[in-house]
Amino acid sequence: MPTEEPYKKLVNQGMIQGVIEYLYLNKEKKEGYSHFLCSKMAIAEGEDNFARIPINIDFVQNYGSSDSYIDKESIEKFIEWRPEFAEAIFECGKGTYHKGSFTPKAGGEEMTNTHLLTQSETGKMSKRYYNAVNPDDVVAQYGTDCFRMYEMFLGPIEQSKPWDTQGISGVSKFLKKFWNLFYKDDKWIVVDEAPTPDELKILHTAIKKVHDDIERLSLNTCISAFMVATNELGKIKCHKKAILEPLTVLLAPFAPYISEELWQQLGERGGQSVHRDAEYPVYNEEYLKEDAFEYPVMIKGKMRAKIQLSLDLEQAEVEKIVLADEKVQQWVNGGTVKRFIYVKGKIVNIVL
User: Fold this and answer.
1) In whole angstroms, how far apart are CA 198 and each of 184, 237, 261?
2) CB-based contacts of 176: which residues, under 8 Å, 6+ apart?
3) pLDDT tens, position by position, for the chain (352 residues)?
């Protein structure tokens, strides 16, 4: 190197782990046939009597959960995959599947399908455990932006994290909510109106949070900040360009495709790109200042009321408002106030 080493820290991304699904195979055959048993029953009998056979997660219903299981259709796929078990017995608490048919247990519920519980464990994602997730399949179903953001949302960048396809729906819903700030029934609803202080506070709170968390490479909490801001803007039905445009630029490194499309729609860009030409937003502390606080009111050592008050009020004004409050009057009940303690932005304490 012709210069000093410019990097201060090496960051190693944690391994993305997978869910391993096991079937319990009895070490002793039953009536001359290989015998698979529901995980709940196998564990009750003693795991030492069984071999654990990894099964392709594509065959498992509710895979990765405590009630993951295989049914008749799953067993048929398993047998096609592992033909050496074509005549195996698959037994669950409700009955037995053998040679293409399910027989319910005598005296049990009338059932036509098996519900053989599997054992789910978090481990390495590999061909050996038949639990590898093809990113192309996830992108085809959810889109590239959703896939990127979910990987970031899984947890701290340096920690190992289990991949759970069931959890990706939350990120997908967030992106749809974000899109709905711009469109309703495929109609563009963004307006050129001046933002309110509350809307500016939501925007600049998100900008500050994302800015600070990127510096720490805390990408998962950045995604949380986007979700919070989107939910809050959705509640107050904010569709203002002055808010949504900087929020779109803020989102661009995390969800590049949806951000590019929306940024193009927000103005005449003439071949420009949000990733090359947009100015990344900077938060303004003025919009983050609190002008009011909900004070807990303590009377006789216990909180008896909560009152929203401006932070600009002097103690005399606070005392007058608090003592006139109906709930406070009920607890004071005509008694003499010996001390009125007011700590700005924290608490009000009334000593009788």
Assistant:
1) 23, 12, 27
2) none
3) 777 887 878 899 899 898 999 999 999 999 999 999 999 999 999 989 999 999 999 999 988 888 999 999 999 999 999 999 999 999 998 889 999 888 888 755 555 678 899 999 999 888 899 998 889 999 999 999 999 999 999 999 999 988 877 779 999 999 999 999 999 999 999 999 999 999 999 999 999 999 999 999 999 999 999 999 999 999 999 999 999 999 999 999 999 999 999 999 999 888 899 999 999 999 999 888 777 788 899 888 888 888 888 888 888 888 889 888 888 888 888 788 888 888 888 889 988 8
- Name the token pair of 170: 């939350």
* Structural domain containing residue 61: 16-129
Both tokens of 342, joined, read: 């007011």
Report which secondary-structure segment, H or E, holds 331: helix 326-332
Give the phi and the psi of residue 350 in degrees, each rounded to 5: -110, 120
- Which of 129, 155, 183 is the C-terminal boundary of a domain? 129
Residue partners of 293: CB distance under 8 A and separation at least 6: 308, 309, 311, 345
Nearest to 244 by CA among 261, 266, 227, 222: 266
For the chain, report the end-to-end CA distance as a whole number of angstroms.
Answer: 74
Count of domains forming the chain: 3
Buried b (16+ CB within 10 A) or exposed e, 92-105: bebbbbbeeebeee
pTM for the model stands at 0.74
**Domain of residue 329, CATH code:** 3.10.20.590
Burial of 295 from C-beta contacts in 10 A (0-12 / 13-18 / 19+)? buried
Is residue 72 one of the residues assigned to a domain? Answer: yes
- The domain spanning residue 187 has which CATH number? 1.10.730.10
